[in-house]
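Hi everyone,

Forwarding the result from last night's run.
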Amino acid sequence: MKRPSFTSVLEKHNMEIKRGPVEIVQVNIGRRCNQACHHCHVEAGPTRTENMDETTVDQIIRLLEASTSVSTIDITGGAPELNPHFQRLVLAARELNLKVIDRCNLTVFFEKGQEMTPFFLRDHGVHVVASLPCYSKDNVEKQRGRGAFGKSIEALKILNDLGYGHPDSNLRLDLVYNPTGPFLPPSQSKLEADYKRELKELFGIEFNHLFTITNMPIKRFLHDLERAGKLEAYMELLVNSFNPQAANSVMCKNLVSVAWNGELFDCDFNQMLDLHSGRVSVWDLASFDELNKNEITFANHCFACTAGAGSSCGGALTSEK
């Protein structure tokens, strides 16, 4: 049976999703990473060479200076800290009084030359969003490799010691959960309570919030689904779980994704599929304000963002499924 397209489902629900002012600029600063996680939609890893250069970083800073609606820069990768221009981009954004998010895999702190990175993040008030797919060692290492769990716990302790994640601190530490297989995340609020209880009791670790993110059927996860013969069942689950309320809150309405080479996309997932937005690159803009009201490019992987409670870089989009 042929699956409906994402756009046809929007039409069925009499929905039209339009971009508003760009509030979040998400910069994929490179695909080099010290890990090669099974669910990684970027297919990042230690052998990847794509890294944003100084000229492109300079252009992004110029666009941020000229933009009026942007309030947040969200830096991702790969492991973004491994890019030699990461700290310079952070400093420029903070000088513009922008909120800065670092999407951190935690284990990067133990790479050569990264020993002072946690202190840099603290000193400049960077919001750390850290990947920890489970509070169980077995589940984490199934996704991220042997030794990843212990290093992740140690990194969280370092961040806690620096003031991150405490209720009375302005240093925000959020964690990210991805399912270990072809199913939707459980209730974000319930899972957050489980994470907080287990991490506190077992390791004395505190954090602010947990984001649940649905695995996107692209790149490595897509290949795993195909090898296991589970792609059709997973896509059927996503389509049948379409939630109009979640669709009204998708992140592409106020976010633009910038690739390591400066190309522009509606989200990080479209970037990995080379599905361009209306403008091709940062070199075509005078400011990010020019992207306001641009049409959004949709495809069937978008069902992952609108299934169940919804999914975004900030976690669930609705409070119930």
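Residues 188-203 form the longest helix (16 residues).

Cheers,
N.
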